[in-house]
Amino acid sequence: MEQTFSEAETKDWLAEHLPTWRLRDKSLFRVYKTGSWRLTMLVANHIAFIAEAADHHPELVLNYPSVEVHLETHSAGGITQKDFDLALKIEESVTWYPDKDSALDGTKLDGWLKQNS
Fold first, then answer.
1. In which band, very low, low, confident or very high, does the pLDDT at 30 lie, cut at 50, 70 and 90?
2. CATH class of the domain whose range is 7-115
């Protein structure tokens, strides 16, 4: 059985590594405010790809203006390192945007980035 983290350990870890995430109902929780159905679907599909590659699958709640992510390791009965690692990868990739020195122009997602950083 995988090691699970206590509520205090989880909150401390999130505060240090992923301050935009929370502990909610015994799972890691994050809302990405998309503002549109199109962006909701892009974010959800992106998360789905990462989760499938990791073989660790979050619960996603899709709405017109947002994507909710809930992560826990059901087989272990709590939060494990798998949840932290997947949350880090989701956060890193979903909030990625080309910087001003990049050859990539990027799309008009400035509002998205400000809401989700």
1. very high
2. alpha beta
